[in-house]
Amino acid sequence: MALRQLEKTYDPKQAEERWYQFWIDKKYFHATLDHPGEPYTIVIPPPNITGSLHIGHALNNTLQDILIRWRRMQGRNALWIPGTDHAGIATQNVVERQLLAEGSSREALGREAFIARVWDWKTQSGGTILQQLKRLGASCDWDRVRFTMDEGLSKAVREVFVRLYEEGLIYRGERLINWCPRCLTALSDIEVEHEETKGKLYHIRYPLADDPATSLIVATTRPETMLGDTAVAVHPEDPRYRHLIGKHVRLPLTTREIPIVGDPVLVDREFGTGVVKITPAHDFNDFLAGERHHLPRFAILDAHARLDPESLQKAAVEPAVRESVQGLPVSQARPKIEEHLQTREFLVKGDDHKMAVGKCYRCKTVVEPYLSPQWFVNIQPLADPAIKAVEEGRIRIIPESWMNNYLGWMRDIKDWCISRQIWWGHRIPAWYCRQCNEDSTIQTASSGGGKRSYSFSAKAKPIVALRAPTHCPDCGQHDFLQESDVLDTWFSSALWPFSTLGWPDQTPELKKFYPTSTLVTGLDILFFWVARMIMMGLKFMGDVPFRDVYIHALVRDAEGQKMSKSKGNVIDPLSIMGTYGTDALRFTLASMASPGRDIKLTEERIEGYRNFANKIWNAARFILMHVEGTREPVRPEDRSFADRWILSRLNRTIEDTTAALEQYRFDHAAGLLYQFIWHEYCDWYLELVKPALQDKESAEARSTRATLIESFEVMLRLLHPFMPFLTEEIWQALPHESGSDSVMIRPYPSSQSEWNAKEIEEQFASLERFVTVARAGRALLAYPPGARLTLFGAAKDPQERISLERMRPHLEQLSRASVQITPEEAWPSEKVLRLVAEGLTIGMYVEGDVDLQKVLDRIVKQSADAVKEVTRLNAKLANVEFIAKAPADVVAEHRQRIITLTHEHSMLASSEQQLRSML
Ligand SMILES: [Zn+2]
Ligand SMILES: [Zn+2]
């Protein structure tokens, strides 16, 4: 049978397209219910429909694909469910920007038309990222693509909402929430990013109402909010102030008097002046203090965080002040207020001050605490079982170090604000009877340009149901308004592991594939997403959503900086795949995925693994030149030293790679494969077998050919999950059993104990040492690579001497020398340069017109360089700061390098001495 010959160079592009289509056509990615294997399920972290594949996705999906391909080859019923997230605010922003460019707006379109427009956009552009995942080689089950707003998942959302509401785990209330004045919606706590900025700490004088000559001094970073103060607080045991509790102060710039209250929670006697102002509508701690003291709330900002004229009037702000600040955003109102306080002599001082400011994670606008009716999940009852599941090990978090982050956060969890004042998302299934809620209707829905879209106050009584109610149970009317808020995007993704399998219907898929096996995700969504999936899975499925959570690092640039367009340091996976091939990118990401450490990615690194792919390609070409179209049987006892050695090494690589994958050490697995394939298989083994292949008809050639092809085929299977395209392209060209159509459905290699040959490996170690020293000697003498040397070898250990003698043909071949293994006494007394290394002494017969002075110079220089390098490395290792910061493998690498250099140095030193005597 004639074999397909491989082209001179590997062309990733055409191979990738061809084989991906082939796999799809064969339905290899599709998981079926009748597959006999134990299920292995992964749900994809659904990328946003607005997304385009970035390097973070590339890492996340490469790791998932490695796991799923590996488990599939192991015979598991492997299912990887793909899909996308509707990404509420993000998507709404994209479409709103488009409308703006067309001179239109969301309001001009109206709710229904706007939503239709977003769906149109989704149909056209929302699938981009899934197409890009295919280029990455992702073996998702494309027959099961889900979307967080498709019919089934929306049904799951409504079901969960209604059940939680009925159990009292969802409630509506007027609360202070984080508000983005640009996106005009509530944000959950973790959607707020805190940033340190420069501000001022203002000290303001509040005169006592009954004794204006005496004042309390209040410190604040936000003087404009003082217009909404409704009390000042002191510590009830503070001797300076306790006699004032119950009295009033005049609130500057207003005509209001506000009480002095005692509050040991809010006030720290030691801090500042010991007096604080209470502004319940604009600060989270003040809101709680306001509840404790039954204080009124004056919200002075509108939805855009501008000072609202009507509210300022309600708060009794003096007309002159009001006129100068109304309608201004906070940043402009603040200096005006400062000016008023200054001219009226209320301002004592304003010092520079650093403070943390919360910003919207989407648009980076400063977030305001904002008082409004919102929907919340009463989270504690859901959090408790989710804490337990991790504590009891029913869910493993890997690396383990993140477990404490999870537990810490979960133990301190706050109620989850789930309503969003946007249009794109799952609309909350709640309705208000207009008749019964007439006095709760908020008339300000369109005032001041603030697009607050809710229309009922917190007092209103909603009807929560799966479907719109037909009539009101209280008054019998049927005039309803549906809640206009939609749910936080993370509400639907929290249900992802079971909603994608058909819940609330009890589908066979749900039964078979839930709980899923592994979740692969970034640390940034541990709380947004992972924690919530755990809570919802336990609540609605009565079981954990996944067994293992593997958290991978973030990809950064070479300097450890976050990649961003503005910095110009972005590595675009699509262009990388185009330049170096998908497998090179995948292998790079896997090899850098060390637990808990950010990946500092460089293009050079990817280029290096492209060379690795080429190296494998060239090995395949070499093999195909020598093997026949059919596999030849081989008896174990006919295998040569080289064959037995490579099989033993291969077996160890199979065991270690599998163990590494089981522990999610993608970096170790990739490193083992690289080391084995490049250094052992290509550099040593393929060299060693060349002589045996020369006489094609010999029994030795036959057995070598058989081992060559056998080991290479196993190696391709071992590598397949990491480099799916290259391995398939080569595998298809190799002779393989009829009936096997693809490497991806062949079994993953497992350990073959009959391949183990410890003794052979030890012998090989002697050979390697001998050849390495001989090569170093050749370089010292500056012999051209082709020149044949005469070498003498002596070993301290008698066993080693015997192995060297046995391997003499290999030594001669690889050192390009004639070799004699004899005791040193038998060596010629002159013209032999000795190299001593680790119990082995090699003598090189110095022939021709070698300039010994030059050799000596080289030795002296190399020797000095080695000393210098050892000194430098030792200094680094002695540096406490370096040791504390450096990753363990870097430290280990340094130590290993010191050992190697020390050996080299001692070898050179002995040669130097000897050479001097020869000169
Ligand atoms: Zn925003
Ligand atoms: Zn009613």
Structure commentary:
- This protein has 919 residues and is an alpha/beta fold.
- It has a four-stranded antiparallel sheet with strand order 6-5-14-16. The protein has a four-stranded mixed sheet with strand order 10-11-9-12, with helices on one face. A four-stranded mixed sheet has the order 27-26-29-28.
- Helix 12 runs antiparallel to helix 13 (401-411) and helix 24 (699-719) packs antiparallel against helix 25 (724-733).
- The longest helix is centred in the last third of the chain and has 31 residues, at 888-918.
- It is elongated.
Give a quick account of the main beta sheet: strands, pairing sense, barrel closure. Answer: 4 strands, antiparallel
Unreliable stretches: 443-454
Q: Which word captures the global form? A: elongated
Spatial order of strands in the largest sheet: 6-5-14-16
Terminal CA distance reads 62 Å
Question: What compounds are bound to the protein?
Answer: zinc ion
Assembly classification: single chain
The total of beta strands comes to 29
What is the typical, i.e. mean, pLDDT? 89
Overall SS class: alpha/beta
Q: Count of helices?
A: 31
Radius of gyration: 37 Å
User: In what range is the share of β-strand residues?
Assistant: 15-25%
Helix content: 40-55%
